[in-house]
Amino acid sequence: MSEAAGKSGLKASARRVQEALAGLGLDFEVREFPESTRTSAEAAAAVGCAVGQIAKSLIFRGKASGRPVLVVASGSNRVDEAKVAAAVGEAIGRADAAFVRERTGFAIGGVPPLGHLEPPLVVLDRDLEAHAEIWAAAGTPNAVFRLSPRDLPRIAGGRFAEIRQA
């Protein structure tokens, strides 16, 4: 086992997510795969589920406040930025990789729905509610954990909204 993986067998970022879940009293298991789970299609193939069951975390930047905005969207959906802006009450823009790492503590492709360095504004994709179980990123580009959509507001904050691009 590498030193970076630590005693739990998880890489440091994935271990942070596992500890954040435990801190909420949840026993969800972070799983790391040898293959990438960076994209929704890769994650779905790794865990054996539909792409729509992947809860992808996207970070935007509030244009007025500069705050991070976390959108947890169904892996099969494109996000309508105007709908997200309406949900958070300010215009949003794309966040670059440096902003994402600085504000969340995670790299793009592994951003989880919890455990961020700075609490983001959060919007959850209503389409995730159609699934009995979903899978979310867990801190690295090859780590995920399974949860129920009903657990998502407790884990990530925010509320469900219609954000799918037509």
Textual characterization of the structure:
By secondary structure, this protein is α/β, with parallel strands linked by helices. The protein has one domain (3-161): YbaK/aminoacyl-tRNA synthetase-associated domain (YbaK protein, Alpha-Beta Complex). Helix content is 25%, strand content 23%. The model has no long low-confidence stretch (mean pLDDT 94).
Strand residue content: 15-25%
* Topology pattern, helix = H, strand = E: HEHEEHEHEEEHE
CATH class: Alpha Beta
**Overall mean pLDDT:** 94
- Please give the CATH architecture: Alpha-Beta Complex
Largest sheet: 8 strands, mixed
Q: What does the oligomeric state look like here? A: single chain
Number of domains: 1
Distance between the termini: 46 Å
Task: List the keywords.
166 residues, alpha/beta, 8-stranded mixed beta sheet, 5 helices, 8 strands, 25% helix
Q: What secondary-structure arrangement, pairings included, does this model have?
A:
Blueprint: H1 12-23, E1 31-32, H2 40-47, E2 54-62, E3 68-74, H3 81-88, E4 92-94, H4 97-104, E5 121-125, E6 134-137, E7 143-147, H5 152-156, E8 159-161
Concise account of the structure shown:
This protein is of the alpha/beta class. Helix content is 25%, strand content 23%.
